[in-house]
Amino acid sequence: MTRENLADASTTLESAADETGDDDAAERLASLADQLDTLATRDRDPDHGRLARIENALNDLEDTDVGDSVESAHESVVAFRETVEGV
Question: Which range of residues forms the domain containing residue 29?
Fold first, then answer.
């Protein structure tokens, strides 16, 4: 199964981290980008719980100055999560 959506979300969040003027948000965005990059390249798919935690973190960051980018990344995570079997 392709994890292109997770890789896209990671790239989007990396750019958002560079563009934001909020240091705390930049750190959180960069951390989420790293997590998504790892999930996109590892051997097995992430579970729904891990993806849900990432989505919650993205929800918290949608009110930042880079909210449009965060929302775009969130949509990519949701698109991938719809392909994961289970709950």
Answer: 4-81
DSSP letter for 84, please.
Answer: S
64 within 8 A of 26, measured Cβ to Cβ: no
- pLDDT, tens digit, 9 for 90 and up, residues 13-31: 999 999 999 999 999 999 9
- What pLDDT, in 10s, does the model give residues 62-79? 999 999 999 999 999 999
Q: How far is CA 68 from the centre of its chain?
A: 13
Please check whether residue 87 lies inside any domain of the structure.
Answer: no
Confirm if 76 and 6 have CB atoms less than 8 A apart: yes
Listing DSSP states for 13-55 in one string gives HHHHHHH-S-HHHHHHHHHHHHHHHHHHHSSSPPPHHHHHHHH
> Which among 81, 79, 74 is positioned nearest to 57, based on CA atoms?
74
